[in-house]
Amino acid sequence: MKKVLIIDAPPLFREFLKEKLSAERIEVDIAQGNRDAFTKLLSQLPELLIVNSPDNYQDLLDFLEKKRSDPNASKIPTILTGPVLEQDQLRALPSYGVIKYFNKPVKFDIFFESIGRILRTNFSMDTTQCILELHLNDNIIFIEVAQGLNREKIALLKYRITEMIDDNKLTAPKIVLMMTDLALSFVDGANLEYLIDNIIADSRVVRKNVKILALDSFTKELVNGHKQYEGIEVVENLSTVLNSLVDSGTANSVAEVISDKILAATEDVSEGSVQMKFHSESGVMEEQNNGLENQLKIAVVDDDVVTLRLLKSAFSSISVQTDCFSSGSEFLGYTNRKNYDLIILDIFMPGLSGFDILNHLHIRNYKSPVIIYSNITQRETVVQALSLGAKSFLIKPQKPEVLIQKALEIINSKI
Questions:
Q1: Which of 61, 134, 146, 380 has a beta carbon 3.0–4.6 Å from 181's, enabling a disulfide?
Q2: What is the pLDDT of residue 271?
């Protein structure tokens, strides 16, 4: 049996690696600290060494030099993960037997591809297109799943939730799983169970604090039919979810959660040690950031001529193609022959409203993400827009850079 030794990896990364490698019948051992690492390295002589690099580059070189000086260990290939290094630092690593260096957070699919090449093992990878994102506001973990259910990302979700709970010292974590983009059926049953099982895997997640926002009837039937999911609630309305999770007795608590939590930019939360995106997804983002933004196409739908002019100018400054529409009917007619990477939509317009447009897009299964950009601040309006599938709600007016940042953030998460 092939052996892999993992040294000084953080808990999420270590456990996820161990689970994935063990499933491929690869023996995995864990070491913490140099003394334990070298004892196991020399006694086991694994086929591969995976090392989490210390923050101090010289400490890393000292470890690698000690490995290189031992005739039995010197030829064992090594994969490193760690912080971003300078080019001259990276160029020194191959002489120590380092095959690959991955910046953290690691793109896990190409990471396993590299391991497979070294061990001559083909890892089975689910390539189902899937958006799976997490963000934290107070003690509520919001999980958004769209496009499909990918078992690789779902497997990682269990560890990411635990890491988020630990890092933020959550004593009573509450979870909102948002799946309004998905229309599931019995063929998705196993993957849906896998998703829910991974969400409640941490014993600190109490089932009554897990709410699922979904529009398909199958999800509700499956959850209600499982005794082990007793306490988990499936709802179709966002305000129902929030009313049951926010602390009672706080005046206007739901409105505050919507305006201060969901609409506000998420506070910085560690991405963890592994990215929730495929390398191929990130690769497209990197190409766009290297000057290919002109491939992006955005539609702006607003009856305010000034807003149209300002947004067109803002996105043109980063070479994004921007089509402007002063009415909902004009825009919907155009979507029959063109797909957009993003739609920026006002709510109240003559003729078709923003709500009407969101309904039309949902009925036609038009997948472009939508940002609502409106001067409407009523809680009911925000809830309705988000429940109909809008990804974000920005209150007018905003600085151009705020709109650009939010737009690119949503587009990149969609790719």
A1: 146
A2: 55
